[in-house]
Structure formats: C-alpha cells, structure tokens
Amino acid sequence: MKVSLLPNCFLIAALLLVGPGCDAPVESFPDNDVYALTLAHSRDVPTEAASRDVSSVIEELFGTPNQPRWPSELMDPDLRISEQNLTRAAGPQLSEKDGTHLGLFREHCVTCHALSGSGAGPASVFQNPYPRDFRPGVYKWKSTQRDAKPTRDDLTKLLQHGVAGSGMPSFSLIDPDDLDALVDYIVYLSVRGETERELMAAAIDELGYGEDSIDDDARLVTQGELVTQGETDGAAVIREVVEEVSNQWASAESEVVPVPAWEELSGETLAASVNRGKELFHGPIANCVGCHGKGGQGQAVTLDYDDWTKEYSTRLGLTPTDRDAMRPFKKAGALTPRLAKPRKLTLGVYRGGGDTDSLYRRITQGIAGSPMPAVAVVEQEDGTGLTSDQIFDLIRYVQSLGPQSTVPQSEFNYQSSTP
Amino acid sequence: MTAVNSSDEIAPSRMLHRLTVLIVCLVWPLIWVGGLVTTYDAGMSVPDWPGTYGYNLFLYPYKTWLFGPFDLFIEHGHRLLGAVVGFVAIGIVIAAFWKENRRWVRWLCVALLLMVIAQGALGGVRVVLSDRTLAMVHGCFGPAFFAICVILAVVTGRRWRQDSDAERLRSSTSILTPTKKLAALAISLVVLSYVQLLLGAMMRHVQPTTSAGHFAGIVSTHILTAFFLWAMTGLVWLRLRRCGDLTLSRPGGILIFLVAVQIALGIGTWVVNYGWPSFMTWVPGSQSFLVQAKGFVDSMIVTGHVATGSLILAVSAMLCVRLFHRRWQAKQDRLVAT
Q1: CA dist., res. A120 & res. A29, Å (int)
Q2: Average pLDDT in the B298-316 region?
Q3: Could you tell me what percent of chain A has a pLDDT over 70?
Q4: Domain for residue A174, yes or no?
Q5: Structural Rg of chain A based on CA atoms
Q6: Do both A243 and A147 map to the same domain?
Q7: Which range has the worst mean pLDDT, B54-58, B126-130, B150-154, B330-334?
Q8: Which end of chain A has the smaller Cβ count within 10 Å, N or C?
Q9: What CA–CA distances, in Å, run from A217 to A195, A196, A207, A226, A236?
Q10: One domain, residues A65 and A127
Q11: Which of A175, B51, B23, B130 is nearest to B138 (CA)?
C-alpha cells in the first residue's frame, strides 16, 4: 500500500490534538444496582459483598460488552447460541467490505435497551411503555406459557414486526443474519442478567453474604475448573444457577401453547359468534371490561403497574408515586414506575399480534410481566373458565372492534358513556 | 487611508465569487451525504484512511464503489465529494491571492482551506480510532465550515461591492441602519443555531453509557431552544421586513420558514426513531404507528433535519454578516459627513 505523506502528517497532527479518542470507555457491563438495592430492602441486609463477587463471576462467565463469552461448558446443549453471532452483535459499530455490520446491538438497540439490556437506555424515559429489561427474562409477546421463555422464533418475529404504537421498531429491512445474531445476543443478555440476579439472591439467601463474615467455601468465585466440578458451595451454586437459567431457555420450544383448530366464520354465524363474544367480554368470567372498558374503549380506571417496576416499589411495600421512597432506586438506575395502561381495543392495534392464534394465547396465558391475567380453559362451561369455543367467540368480538376490522361489529356494541 | 472604499478599490473577482458559490453548492450536498453516512451507520464501512481498502482514494475501483454495498457507496462517495471540496478550496485560495485585494478576504479564504483540511483529518481520525465522539465533532465542524463558505460567497459577491459604494449608499437614505440590539439579535441567532446543532449532534451520537437523565436533559433543551430560536427569527424579521433592503429582509423571512420546517423535521426525526411521544398521542394514527428501522423515507427525514440545521446556521451567518456590514457602512458614512 502506498503511503501518502501529506494526509498522514495531518492524521498525526489530528491524533495529537484529540489524544487517544474521546468515547466513554465501555469496558464492562454495569452491575444490576437496582436489584441489589431491592434485595437489600427486602432482606434487610447489606448487599455490597454479594454485588462485588457476583460482578466478578459474571464477567468471568459472560465476558464484557466488547468481548462477550458464552459459558457453553455450563449451558444446556439444546440452547444453541453461536459465539460468532455474539461477537458480531457485540462491540462498537463497524462494517466490513461486503457490507456486513458488526456491533449490531449498539447500532440498533442500545439507545433504548441499554448496554446490559436493562431497558434504561438513554432514550428510555421517553418511551411508554418502557423498553424491555431483558435481565429478569420476562417477555410479553411470545407463543409459550406465561412463565416460560420465548422461543427464538418469537423473538425473531418480534424484531421483524416491531411493536406498533411503541418505540420498538420493525427490523424487517435488516438482513436476516443480523436479526439472527441479535436474537442470540438478546438471549445472551437475558441469560447473563438472570444469572446475575439469581446469583445475587442465592448469595444472600443461601451463602450467607448478608452476614458479617462469609465462609471461604461459600464464596462466589469461579476458580476456573471448580465451577464445572462444583467443589465448593459457592461454585456449586454458580453451576446450579447457570444450568437452571439455561434449561429454562432451552425448554422454551416445548412450552409453546397449542391452539385448538378453529373455524373461519362468515355471515350470520360470525355475527352470532361476535355477539356471544361480546357477552363474554362484559361477563364475570373473562371480565375484560374491568380493565379494557366497555366495548374495549380503554376507559376503565386501573391503578396497576408492570412487574418490572413493581419489583422495586409495591412489592417492597413502597408507594410508586412516593418520590422520596423511589429516589434511591432511581439513583441506582431504576425508571420511575408508570401505570400499566390496558389496551384500547377499538384502535385495532395489538402489540403482540392480532391474529387468532396470538390472541388465543394471550387470553389463555395473559401477558407475562403485566397485570393482564389468564383465563382458564375448561372442557365444559362450569363458571370457572371459558371453553375454547367461547375463547374463539371472544377473539372474534375483540377482532371486530378495530376500525379496519372485516369482522362485523356486534349488534349491541357498547358505546362510551362519556361524549 | 480613505474612510470609504469605493467599488474601484475593491476589484471585482468573478472567478473567486464563482468558486465560492461552487463550494457552497458542493458543501450542502456533502453535509447531506455525511448525514446519510451517520443515519445508515456507515461511518466505519471503510476502516482505513486516507485510502479506501488500501487503494488511493481516487483510484478505488469505481464499479465496486457504485455497485457494491450501500454503506461503502455513501462513505466512499462522502470522501470523494470531500476531496472535491478540498480542491475547490485550494482554487479559492489561489484566486483570492491572484485577484482579491482585500487582505481579510484573502485570509478568510486561507482559513477556509485550513478548515476543510481539518475537517478531512477529523473524519480520518474518527475512522482510524472508530470514535463516536470524534464523529460528533466532525459532524459539528461541517456546518461551521458551510457557514464560512456562505459568508465568503456573500463578501465576494457583486451585491457586497455595490453596498461598499458610498455613492449608492448615500442615494438610498431609506435603508435601515441596524441598531446594536438588532446586531446582537443576529449574533444570537447564529450562536443559538449552532448550539442547536451541537445538542442535536449529542443526541444523534449518543454514547451507550449516557444516562437516561442526561439524554432527557439534552432533548428538553433542544426542544425549548428550537421554539426560542423560532421566536427570535420572528422578532428579527419584524425588525427587518420594511428595512428597504431585500438582502436583509428576505433572509429574515426565510429563517422563519426554515426553522418551522426544521421543527417539523425534528418531530419527524423523533417519531421515526422512537415513535410518537406520549403527549402527542392525540395525533391521528400515532397509536398505531410502527417505527421502521433503516427505512428510506425515515432516513431522509433524519438526514434532512441535519442538513436543514446547517442551512439555518448558514442563513443566520449570512444575515449577521450583512447586518454588520450595513452598520460599518453607516459608520463610514457618518465619518464622511463630518
């Protein structure tokens, strides 16, 4: 390569002027200080020692934002995460000669979801709902049981479709390989974050980190091979926690909620189904009206919060609107709790998808992390749940509420009582 | 030394003026392409500098450039256009020392050349160090350079020379003599326009480690300053609208329009990046709006916001320079009269 003198002189001059670069260093993931504070409140013990040791263990197991590591030796083999994908998604933004993008997470996600996936990124306070905190491993939009993890397919579809009416974009124009790498990285951040949380809780609850002195055997240090061999109590806990978290992710495919066969209706049969659905919507068993309001207009008054913010407020006996009580958590990086607003169904916008299968799963499982409850599925009408046919009636009614709906409106569609 | 320069003393230099107009016409597209580079996160698509993948900048295979990945197309294109601007800047300096007899104009031309070199070097260091903050500095320096280009085009223009003609000035008694307040307002317009550019650049090149509170502070200041700037453009226009000089009143009116467009583009930029804000859910369709990552129209809105910011700075600078020139002329006039 030919070296031109003049531009290089300018380059050297400019380098001298600007020094070694001005970017804030991204050397390690920030610790989960909010959860440490939550534990300190709920257990009434100091958590500094646990935070410190967990932090070093997590970094040894999972690496750094620039050099992620996947501890495959501890992971469920069914949880196939490509280390190559992690490397592509992590680190600073770069692109190669063939147009391949590197640093995908920082290119597409970090401004909202933050470096560690805490959901408290720079632009998070302007989002409603807040961007997802990946670290508790709880996801709203999925095809699996309420308590289960989402499948890879769920996460890929979410990235492709985005979440209408929120800040979550559709990445349908992004290369599918990039999305695949991002899915791997989201699972990685989730597993890393859950492991961090579980280890911190285990350190306090099982290993005595809240006490004055900690037994050497109970210390959370990986000590290389000891983690896999489980030779100390601390190492055994690390192994158990990582295996448990990874097993949950690996078993997501087997937790997919099956949707019974349903029939496309039209004409009078459809109208009758919609009418039955309307009765169920406003009835005592499903009681959708309690939150979504009459006719799904979203005008009911609700005073509930999502699980992510409840964890450091109501579940600790603190009032979310009490600024003094919330201040230490906000200082630690928590977002101000906001009321979870039930969907205004008349908009016809369903954030997790409005197709029949998705709505069936949403009604029968509820929405994880939100106050939306599940409706029990029963074989026969017994007053405790709905039969699958009734659920499909309810779905047809809900689908009829949107402005673009091709499903006929119910004859007795409720109107808002206010003008 | 005579108090007033006559048009004869300032020798006309058409070549210099044409070159300055050419550089203005090149730099605004350059800012657009540079904006696109950031919008598409293509800044690091060519990891070496000053060459492109080992090739001399001008010898890089054009087929690979034109038909290769889009990132490479815009980044290499940005470099080539930047180099062309550099050559024009060299031409400006030569023309200035050859034809221009105002010393301060000559040195302004030299400053322009130094700025384009510094801007190129900043871009290069940003690539070599892969540094986002330097990308921000590079992004902020570009509009300042553009404003200087516009000022040079103004001061080398025919109109400026005509304004320097004391006879003409004396004949047009109805022309406004800008007050100190108006001059201060014009300076404030330039300063605020640039502050807005800096705030916008801080949002655009936000660091992954930036706290939510810090970012919220930048956003709020950016929004408030935008409306304050808009009000100021209205105030300036009110003072200039019947001043009798279209070279002052027109840019004043244009600024109101540009800042209005810029505010609309700013809202659009936010929406295509983060969706509609909570306080604007009354807008029809806002609650069903889906953000599309890397959409073409979305990218154009964002880049348009960047480019319009530069245009506002340049027009403010042009207005400011003309106002100060007018004040200077009035002062010279008074000296002649006494």
Answers
A1: 13
A2: 97
A3: 89
A4: yes
A5: 25
A6: yes
A7: B330-334
A8: C
A9: 20, 20, 9, 12, 10
A10: yes
A11: B130
Minimal Cβ distance to A11: which of B68, B121, B289: B121
Residue type, A96: E
Task: Provide DSSP, B61-126.
Answer: -HHHHHHS-HHHHHHHHHHHHHHHHHHHHHHHHHHHHHH---HHHHHHHHHHHHHHHHHHHHHHHH
Using CB atoms, which residue from A13, A22, A97 is nearest to B53?
A97
Q: Are A262 and A230 found together in one domain?
A: no
User: Do A243 and A357 sit in the same domain of this protein?
Assistant: no
Whether residue A326 is contained in a domain is answered as no
Rounded Cα–Cα distance for residues B310 and A35 (Å): 45
Domain that holds residue A267: 258-304+342-419
Of A75, A79, A397, A388, the C-alpha closest to A257 is A388
CB pairs under 8 A between A and B: 171
**Degrees, nearest 5: CA angle B113-B118-B119:** 95
What pTM value is reported for the model?
0.89
Query: Is A60 domain-assigned?
Result: yes
Kindly determine whether residue B293 and residue A347, on different chains, have CB atoms separated by under 8 Å.
Answer: no
Q: Which of A130-134, A224-228, A411-415 has the lowest mean pLDDT?
A: A411-415
Residue A157 sits in the same domain as residue A290: no
Domains: count for chain A: 2
pLDDT value at residue B247 = 86
d(CA A76, CA A90): 22
Coil, helix or strand at residue B52: strand
Residue located via tokens 């190559």: A84
Task: Measure A162 CA to nearest chain B CA, in Å.
Answer: 7
Percent of chain B at pLDDT > 90 equals 75
Q: CATH no. for residue A398?
A: 1.10.760.10
Same domain, A183 and A282: no
Point out the residue among B134, B206, B211 whose CB comes nearest to the CB of A21. Answer: B134
Residue B121 to residue A170, Cβ atoms within 8 A: no
Residue B285 forms contact with A (CB below 8 Å): no
Last residue of a domain, one of A223, A238, A255: A255
Same domain, A37 and A176: yes
**Calpha distance A184→A164 (Å, rounded):** 23
Residue A325 inside a domain? The answer is no
Q: For chain A, what is the largest distance between any 2 Cα atoms, rounded to a whole number of angstroms?
A: 86
Choose among B210, B227, B265: nearest CA to A115: B210
Split at pLDDT 50, 70, 90, the class of A80 is: confident
What confidence tier does B246 reach under pLDDT thresholds 50, 70, 90? confident
Structure token pair of residue A289: 């009206």
